[in-house]
Hints:
Layout: H1 3-20, H2 25-39, H3 45-50, H4 62-74, H5 78-86, H6 90-95, H7 101-112, H8 117-125, H9 136-154, E1 157-158, H10 159-174, E2 179-185, H11 186-190, E3 194-195, E4 198-204, H12 208-216, E5 224-227, E6 231-236, E7 239-245, H13 251-259, H14 262-274, E8 277-280, E9 283-286, E10 289-292, H15 296-302, H16 318-323, E11 338-342, H17 353-362, E12 367-373, H18 385-401, E13 405-413, H19 424-427, E14 432-436, H20 445-457, E15 463-464, H21 482-492, E16 495-499, H22 509-517, E17 522-525, H23 537-546, H24 560-570
Parallel strand pairs: 4-7, 11-12, 12-13, 13-14, 14-15, 15-16, 16-17
Antiparallel strand pairs: 1-3, 2-4, 5-6, 6-7, 8-9, 9-10
Helix pairs in contact: 1-2, 13-15, 20-21, 22-23
Bound molecules: 2'-deoxyguanosine-5'-triphosphate (DGT) and calcium ion (CA) (2 copies).
The site of 2'-deoxyguanosine-5'-triphosphate has 14 residues, from helix 11, helix 13 and helix 14.
Amino acid sequence: MNINEQLAAALEKTSKYLKFKKENRFKIRAFEDAAERIRVLDEAITEVAARGEVEKLPSVGKGMAVRIKEFIEKGWFSQLRELEKEIPPSVLELMEVPGLGPERTRALYDSLGIKNARELKMALRNGKVSALDGFGEKVSANIIEGLSRKEKYTERMQISEADLLAEAITARLKSVSGIKKVQVAGSLRRRKETIGDIDILYTSSRSGLETGREFTAGMDKKEILALGEEKTSFLYSGRQIDLRKIDEERYGAALQYFTGSKEHAVPLRKHAKKFSMKLSEYGLFKDVKTVASKTEKDIYEALGMDFIPPELRENEGEIEAALNRSLPCLVELKDIKGDCHVHSEYSDGGNSIDEIAAAAQKAGYSWVCICDHSKSLRIAGGLDERKLEEKIKEIRQVNKKYSIEVLCGQEVDIRDDGSLDYSNETLSKLDVVIAAVHSGFSGSRQKITGRVLRAMENPYVHIIAHLSGRLLNEREAYAIDINAVIEKAAETGTALEINAYPRRLDLYYNYARLAARSGVKLAIGTDSHHLSELAYMKYGLDVARRGWLEKKDLLNTISTGALKEFLSEKRGG
Ligand code: DGT
Ligand code: CA
Ligand code: CA
């Protein structure tokens, strides 16, 4: 946050405290207006103060000016300090829970001493809330619902959800009059696995305020978080969207700045400084002269570097590589020839082998590996040996019909002792074997690592699936020594999966990078359970690209013949 945002946040926080304390509404309004005014300022408040013009700002009275100056000097103002001592800030968050608001939050605080969501949940469970005057069963039920909604809003989104929302907003924005360009920025453009809020930039012949007003017209007032010339923020489907108006002339500079990451910007600016240049969201400057600002490429070029793809902008060596002209040639969707991990109706998928073959062929693939669950995973319809024979036969038939090659695979359970859920004789009948841990997640690091290492030693195992077992927003990774796994994978010629399912995205991109550097092949599998999920390939690619992977690092980019060669190699043939 820059100083303006910090100050605006402090003023807004004060206004919330005053609401909680049932202060006079004009007082509350004064803080809200001042916060809004600071937020839309086109220069730093420190500059305004340096000119002695804080009092001249519209919506800023004498008393407010004193607080602002105090904030500039100390980084806080005493009124807010006092309020924070009196009432814990977590109470303010409770006020935002749908169904609560200041009145009820205060009642809960005064009578039950409830200060945060955890205490509130407990009191709801114990029936203490419904017993309060003016609450009752219905209100309690509303609060429970509101809490779970708020939880959803504050957790980071899966990238697939962010993509859908961004597409909808982009389409709507394009229909607003005066709009020219629309571009996603922030973590979504960097294709991070989870997204905090969605940043969208646009250019327009009309003012940002007009555009923001038109775009948010009809929205619930409570969902509009900020409405100013430079930025409009609102909740859409409960998720925060930041729209920013960008000047055409400075498009590249703004895009570069708002794409981030903040971590990438730090060494980049340092590098600019070496040449006495200054990089900001408005351009790359030398003294007062603009050196570059129109396109991102211009900026990187003027800094003596190659263009850095957004996925690499995390300050993980990309700046040095761009300077040395040694950035990777990242893998692209057009390089993909097949999907390593698709479920069919033989286990818990929704489609037949035939349907999958047709869809994969339509996607332009040369091959697809259909991997269902093995027998011990009964809840997911795991196949016993007899059913597996049927599947093998059916795949032979389907292969006669299509030019694409369907490979018969299974996602085989790694048992507690590291042995596999089928005998080697059964495994030898399969074209491709993916092994995975599906149980014993609470085991020690040594135990789980040992299971996976043993599985990799089996000559029939080609790929290890979703290595860490994490589910985004749902389940932490189990304890596993990924470095040891990578080492063993290199030694045994086992590939590691990049599971493209949006709630998994497992291997992490940084481990995918490490694996590739250690000479391990990566295999993107969508883990698709329905034809529509075959498109998750792009999320696997995002991980691959963030992991600096090139075409040569992925099994998905090789021909059917080369894939078969790879698969038979481990079996010693
Ligand atoms: P998120 O939303 O948590 O997934 O992550 P980002 O990267 O989208 O972060 P966000 O939305 O806070 O800001 C969007 C971009 O704006 C961020 O990637 C870089 C830029 N930005 C925001 N605040 C700052 C800042 O204080 N300094 C710098 N250098 N860049 C900033
Ligand atoms: Ca963001
Ligand atoms: Ca943002």
